[in-house]
Write a structure and sequence with these properties.
Elements: H1 2-24, H2 54-58, H3 73-92, H4 96-118, H5 123-139, H6 146-150, H7 156-186, H8 193-233, H9 244-269
């Protein structure tokens, strides 16, 4: 429990930093300089007003200087990252595998909000995550891979790296094909390259099976929740740009933490 608590505190700090990335990266602004400031009045934020979650509550969700409302995404992102970091340690223990999924879940959480707010998935998250996922797959092997069963002579790190590379390539290729077919049939773009690069990143971390599951679950979530949102807000479905990246990121975290449980649940009801 102590390790999980420390991971949660670390997650609060990472979540605070990712809030800066979510706001600035889509606008091509530096995430290093200037320091934290109010987006409305541009006044620098003092260190005592920049404590994750706590400052938002003490300030009653308003800037100390201009009294503009501070978006609810800021404390939610910080709390969500803390919860995911703690869950990773509780699931895998204080191990390298837990660290891998802490990185993965932080990237997914950041891309969830970035795509939801701006419909942009920055390359720093997607391509950076792709490279990180491939590098980590070579050093932190996954268990139970089909490739390891079919070719037991292949070392676990190499089998994991090959599975991750295949997951990244096949997943991105599949989504690109879907986007191409949609464009040909509907005469307009349905998916951006950001979504395709996101799926490549998911494959690098989750492998082929995990990437396919994330695409399936993400598309189902996008269809159900997206249509519900369109109906509630009375948007026109044809003109509404669905943040598919947000649903894919949500599904990927679900698969990473509960993939085996979801599979067992599905098999209970499968014919």
């Amino acid at each position: 429990m102590l390790e999980a608590a420390l991971a949660a505190l670390f997650g609060l700090l990472i979540g605070s930093f990712l809030n800066v990335c979510i706001h600035r990266m889509p606008r091509d602004e530096s995430i290093v300089w200037p320091g934290s400031r109010c987006p409305s009045c541009r006044h620098p934020i003092a260190h005592y007003d920049n404590i994750p979650v706590v400052s938002w509550l003490l300030l009653r969700a308003r800037c100390r200087h201009c009294f503009t409302l501070i978006h609810w995404r800021y404390p939610l992102m910080e709390a969500l990252t803390a919860a995911l970091f703690a869950l990773a340690v509780l699931t895998w223990g204080p191990t390298a595998e837990a660290l891998k999924y802490m990185i993965f879940s932080a990237l997914c959480a950041a891309m969830f909000f970035t795509d939801l707010e701006t419909r942009i998935l920055p390359d720093e998250f997607t391509l950076g995550g792709l490279y990180a996922g491939l590098a980590l797959s070579a050093t932190i092997p996954r268990k139970g891979l089909l490739l390891s069963i079919l070719a037991p002579s292949i070392s676990p790190p190499l089998a994991t790296l090959l599975d991750s590379a295949l997951g990244a390539a096949f997943g991105a290729g599949l989504l690109w094909l879907i986007a191409k077919l949609y464009s040909e049939v509907r005469g307009r773009e349905g998916l951006g390259f950001g979504d395709i690069k996101l799926v490549a990143m998911l494959g690098a971390f989750l492998g082929l099976a995990g990437a396919m599951a994330a695409i399936l679950v993400g598309c189902v979530l996008g269809s159900v929740l997206g249509l519900a949102w369109i109906w509630l807000r009375q948007h026109t479905a044809r003109n509404y740009e669905l943040p598919l990246g947000s649903f894919l990121a949500m599904a990927a975290v679900l698969i990473a933490f509960q993939g085996e449980g979801l599979l067992r649940w599905y098999l209970r009801f499968a014919p």
